[in-house]
């Protein structure tokens, strides 16, 4: 059996184990370890298995992961999400579908603090769904708007997925953060447009609320000042060159604690719960990183990546056809796997193909993360749909699946724009001189 064939069988084995509900970290680690022993023999493979887990989680850049998670956890505990929702609602609530639009807008801002799609979805779902239910919004529109808005936590910086992609591919975290800003804003606008189209066709799906007065809007805006200040400190500080992403993450974590204290919600119990939640999420991510490191070592040692690049080059396919094939692969895989596991599992061969065909690595990273974002709301897995169902038990997966279709179409339009106009991703990194 040739080594590339062994690598392909290993890839299939991980997918099969994932389908059997084996934790993805265990699946990747076990297949990677067995494959390494098969290729190299026990003495060499045992050395790799002893050193690689440490090397996988040792990089200094990974320290941003627990810090950004910590920031998001305490932003949720401080009640910031409720203030964001009420603030955006004051400006959009009087429109048809305004509550759903406000949900998307608040998810975008909260995602810029939280960095996690699932956390954004769960937190905003608890705030927005009862309000939309009280206003007699169609359940499909209410649930789908939160699920779609939650995906903005994956794309809008600081995103944990962007950090992981940057570290695995040795790209600049700051450049990827800058590259994600315009696509993230575009996603938010297209989601709002999708809501507007739906309520235009079915006005009863999103009844308009009363218009807020100028004084009420000003009070609502003042309640959001800490959220915008936190975003400005973290993201603005990185782009202005005042501090590194790791330093920005530490400042953001400290700021989240400070704002929680200022709101009078920093109790010993809240601190303990926040630290425990941060530790659990960080441990999960780091365990997946260790499994992915073992698996990616096996894939590289098997020569699968090089063989794929050579085979595609020999087929003489145009670069655009290769790109579409890679994105479709991610789209299909995203229907069955969570985004972090999917990227960790596939980034080595996919990035090798991308660089082999001369694609810009920052642009390619934004495309991959954007397609992974679509997977979060695509049945049958669609992690965000399950989160919404957990928050509101009366919403069935069938109802959510029907409501999410317009948002998936909006995502398709956004991916097409990002492919056709690379400058949407690359203009800001070049403006801030974060890339050539």
TrEMBL record:
InterPro entries xrefs: DctM, TRAP_DctM
Keyword Transport: yes
Chief subcellular location: membrane
GO CC terms: plasma membrane
Membrane topology: Multi-pass membrane protein
Segments crossing the lipid bilayer: 31-50, 57-80, 100-129, 141-167, 173-197, 224-242, 248-266, 278-299, 311-333, 340-357, 363-388, 400-428
Keyword Cell membrane applies: yes
Top-level taxon of the source organism: Bacteria
Single GO MF annotation: transmembrane transporter activity
Key words of the record: Cell inner membrane, Cell membrane, Membrane, Transmembrane, Transmembrane helix, Transport
Pfam families: DctM
TRAP C4-dicarboxylate transport system permease DctM subunit domain boundaries: 12-423
Subunit structure, as described in the record: The complex comprises the extracytoplasmic solute receptor protein and the two transmembrane proteins.
Family from the record: Belongs to the TRAP transporter large permease family.
Physiological role: Part of the tripartite ATP-independent periplasmic (TRAP) transport system.
Protein's recorded name: TRAP transporter large permease protein
Organism: Marivibrio halodurans
Taxonomic lineage of the native organism: Bacteria, Pseudomonadati, Pseudomonadota, Alphaproteobacteria, Rhodospirillales
